[in-house]
């Protein structure tokens, strides 16, 4: 069984999901791939993990760079999991390109990886903001692709730049 909770952020309503102990999802309401990895059956419930995530989000939206003190358990293929782990390495307030992530994965695995494949994995990230897919930009530095919408991506990047 999975559980959900809502959080109202300055950038819009967010839906959180958990398996009871770990954070399994964080989506802006109605974003692309909204609730894509959520079980068909779930219930709204108050859980300690949701309290911790909401406290983290409160601090983040106040301009802080809080440590993640709860467990993340996104659902996805091995390739997507590798991409999402790379996203966690992007420093707060910085950006990286899809191509740079592809080159890093190629170096780590010895297998050819395309920027487009990375883009697909980034786009399907089920734990937005905390797994910072908003920090990935096009090869020319342009804001491209964000499941929550480009206006939210710009908002998050501006928020982080304002506080570094």
Explain this structure to me?
It is a single chain. The chain is of the alpha/beta class and 164 residues long. The chain is 35% helix and 17% strand. It has 5 helices and 6 strands. It has a 4-stranded mixed β-sheet, with helices on one face. β1 and β2 form a beta hairpin. The model has no long low-confidence stretch (mean pLDDT 92).
List keywords for this structure.
globular, about 160 residues, two-stranded parallel ribbon, about 35% helix
Biggest sheet overview: 4 strands, mixed
Order of helices and strands: EEEEHHEHHEH
Given as residue ranges, the uncertain stretches (5+ residues, pLDDT < 50) are: none
Rg from C-alpha positions? 15 Å
Residue fraction in strands? 15-25%
Total beta strands: 6
Structure class: alpha/beta
Shape call: globular
Given the structure, what is the number of helices? Answer: 5
Helix content: 25-40%
Distance between the termini: 39 Å
Q: pLDDT average, as an integer?
A: 92
Strand order, largest beta sheet: 3-2-1-4
In short:
The chain is an alpha/beta fold. The protein contains five helices and six strands; from the N terminus they run ββββααβααβα.
List the helices and strands and how they pair.
Blueprint: E1 2-9, E2 12-18, E3 23-28, E4 42-44, H1 48-61, H2 78-87, E5 96-97, H3 98-109, H4 115-123, E6 136-137, H5 150-162
Parallel strand pairs: 1-4, 5-6
Antiparallel strand pairs: 1-2, 2-3
């Amino acid at each position: 069984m999975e559980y959900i909770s809502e959080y109202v952020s300055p950038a819009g309503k967010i839906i959180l999901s958990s398996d009871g102990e770990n954070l399994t999802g964080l989506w802006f309401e109605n974003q692309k791939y909204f609730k894509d990895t959520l079980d068909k059956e779930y219930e709204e419930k108050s859980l300690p993990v949701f309290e911790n995530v909401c406290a983290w989000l409160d601090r983040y939206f106040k301009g802080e760079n809080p440590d993640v003190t709860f467990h993340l358990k996104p659902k996805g293929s091995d390739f997507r999991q590798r991409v999402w782990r790379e996203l966690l390495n992007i420093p707060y307030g910085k950006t990286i390109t899809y191509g740079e992530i592809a080159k890093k994965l190629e170096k780590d695995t010895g297998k050819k990886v395309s920027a487009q494949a990375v883009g697909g994995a980034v786009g399907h990230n089920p734990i937005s903001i905390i797994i910072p897919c908003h920090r990935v930009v096009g090869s020319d530095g342009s804001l491209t692709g964000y499941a929550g919408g480009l206006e939210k991506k710009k908002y998050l990047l501006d928020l982080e730049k304002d506080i570094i």
